[in-house]
């Protein structure tokens, strides 16, 4: 727990708090909705915790230009409600949108299944306002999409977990709300056929918004916890489309044809509230008690799932995986979360396999005891020296709490 919690309601107040912390050699850490607090290594408790939730104003919405300017303490769902009145949206769909703040989403580069089409925060942010370690407020980027002047400092702050500065304002490019949306569920007896379908769709003119692969462990969890009726003896591929009615119908028909050729069993089609409920559950499935995020080439997902199955059998563990199949990102939940020696051995084996295929394995959520036994980030790689130099330049005094980020930054 921090020694002091501050809840500013203006950016000037927030900057003053950081300035005082810097002057008195105190450490400070920003907190939004707390939805990503589990992410990262164990760090020392900060002297001051700065709550950003009081910075929650929509400062500007230029609907004709498809841009908006907001304070970083606003939650994503609140922002989406504002934008929907003008028929627009911010194309980010991380878990827990009701509590996740814009600043927290940017700082953790959080995303969801629709990153396949729209990308992550790195693709949506066009400008930021940030409080530096000495309390100075700086701007990066701009307020228009075609802003190409100067260094792209935005990307330094996105995903940095507040180690370089506290994000207090953001400018985004927006997307029109689609005329309609539909999800096609396909069932497969094995992951190879499912991933062949994914690769076939990615290589065609079809443009799905999301491609989510669900294994039997995740299907069981989703059925038991949320009342779904997904098959539990194979794999489900959820294919989401957005667009106008004519284009959507054509793309779904073409997807059905390709899927049949690759041994798919056609499942149901989801619309309206059923569809919204399904994707909400998919996003929440990314947040198990012990969840690893694996990044691989899409072609390596099926082999990884086979290695996962054999490794879990060896160590008497259960696994549940969902994958952003078109992006090569797999979220694997391991159970039980208190079997520390077996979990450590399993994660070490999986990380070795993933690294040997030029991928990464990051433990996104886990019990504190496990963080004491294994590095949640893994090998920081050859770029770590540059990251250290950046931290030294942006925060030489260590005002922003160290230890949570990659390599102990």
Strand content: 15-25%
Widest beta sheet: strand line-up: 14-11-13-12-16-17-15-18
What structural class is derived from the secondary structure elements? alpha+beta
Low-pLDDT parts are none
Number of helices: 14
Task: Give the biggest sheet.
Answer: 8 strands, antiparallel
The count of strands amounts to: 18
Organism: Ktedonospora formicarum
Domain FAD-binding PCMH-type: 1-177
GO molecular function: FAD binding; oxidoreductase activity
Protein name: Glycolate oxidase
What features would you describe in this structure?
This protein has three domains: 4-176, Uridine Diphospho-n-acetylenolpyruvylglucosamine Reductase, domain 3, CATH 3.30.465.10; 180-273, Alpha-Beta Plaits (2-Layer Sandwich), CATH 3.30.70.3450; 291-371, 2-Layer Sandwich (Alpha-Beta Plaits). Helix content is 34%, strand content 24%. The protein has helices spanning 11-23, 76-84, 102-108, 115-118, 121-124, 154-157, 191-202, 216-226, 245-261, 272-284, 301-314, 340-356, 368-371, 384-394, and strands at 4-6, 28-31, 48-51, 58-62, 67-71, 88-89, 125-131, 137-141, 166-173, 175-176, 180-188, 210-214, 235-243, 265-270, 291-295, 318-324, 329-335, 360-365. A hairpin with a 4-residue loop joins strand 16 and strand 17 (329-335). The model has no long low-confidence stretch (mean pLDDT 94). InterPro entries: FAD-bd_oxidored_4_C, FAD-bd_PCMH, FAD-bd_PCMH-like_sf, FAD-bd_PCMH_sub2, FAD-linked_Oxase-like_C, Oxid_FAD_bind_N. Keywords: FAD, Flavoprotein, Oxidoreductase.
